[in-house]
Amino acid sequence: MTSRVLIGRKKLHEMIPLAERTIFNMEQRGEFPRRIALTSRNVAWDLGEVEAWIETRKAQGAQAQRPGMRF
């Protein structure tokens, strides 16, 4: 069995400077690792999955589209 490191909201927001709602919406669309419910009021994310998401974004050279901008 491999051990996993879980991170809370504070650490996640240190790594990913996005609004809580943006992260939630991305999770719902399958574009960001899903949170893990630890209790009814506490959630965490798998650090390995978050780091893999960051690396994928880097590798893709992904750039966000600005609202209203067309290229």
From TrEMBL:
Superkingdom to which the source organism belongs: Bacteria
Pfam family for this entry, one: Phage_AlpA
UniProt-recorded name of the protein: AlpA family phage regulatory protein
